[in-house]
Design brief:
It is a single chain. The chain is of the alpha/beta class. The protein is built from ten helices and 14 strands. Helix 6 crosses helix 7.
Amino acid sequence: MMNYLQTAACVVLWALIGQAAAGCFEQTNCTSCTSYSGNYLFPCTWCPMTHQCHTSGSLYNDCYRHVYIPTPELCPVEDSKPYNQTLAAQIAQWAAMAYAPHTKIDPKVLSKVLRDQLPGNYKMLKIIQRQCDLMVNYSACTVLVAMSHQEKNIIVSFEGTQNMDQLYEQFITTALAGLANTRIGGQVLFYNENLQKLLYPCLKPYLAEILAAYSNYTLTMTGHSLGGAQAQIAAATLVRERIISTDKLLVYTYGAPRFADVDFVSIFDKLVKTNWRLIQARDPVPKIPPSYYLYHTHGEVWFSTPGVTVNSEYVICTDNEDESCAWSQGPRLCFTDECVRIHKNYFIKDMGYAFDEQRLGGPRRPKRSKLGECDSLDFSEI
């Protein structure tokens, strides 16, 4: 008799679990999942990494327990502004501009290039630089700030990897130092956090002053490769520290690598509404480091054919590591010369040299100022 009752209890329990799992799995977003009232014994939890709803403790949930989302108020914000390919092509110009040889820029020539080639009547305001090398000597790392009264927009662009010396240092510090804590929670690669500690304290007060004066303007953060990772870290920090509202923030990045653990990605996805990561086929950088301990943020724009132009077809993927997008090609890496060229070409041929000394150089030099450790080139009076 006791065995019969135990068997019956197990059957009832499994039936309840199965019914609960089915009810959870039918929910398609975080709010409906965590608000679902059909389960009392086995409440639904949302996995922000796969954008799927599961019963609490489900064996099929790919999320770590500490990043489950159990209640609606903890749900990530939804993308507020749709992806715009024409806008992405325009912002890519600024991602490329961050690579320019800034100390050799002639402000008059720069003004003409901005006026003639970049839409929106933008004006360069400031280029902030910090010496960022840890082991190998290379040029200072850079973030630039520009503004358009016509577009009512401020652009912040972070420079990507400059050369092989800097790339070598990134690999070595990743292997030796691993991850580092960020100021908003979670961890990112040590090299990225060290660079953020150098540039962000110089950028924050200047941006805060501009955004206070132009409170109705939007802020666009961008960068290519390493610069894309830095733009995302800075964007989430600016929102967390209430320098900018997430409703007025756009993030567009190009060929950015993985750089953050699951905790930071979960925090980012809650803070930043509009984030579009552009990735094209055969670009090796977005596949590194491996995904077993680092993750991408939300909002992938996937180009299955290399050579991104404004007319290229694309797929939008909402999952952080979506098998319908870049993951559809598996983890295999390509580091041939052709694949490296693909990484450098997002709307612009060879982003690292699109605005070189030949195009922007001249007899004049921007005014250099120094406040504490913050070294900057000031264009605001030109």
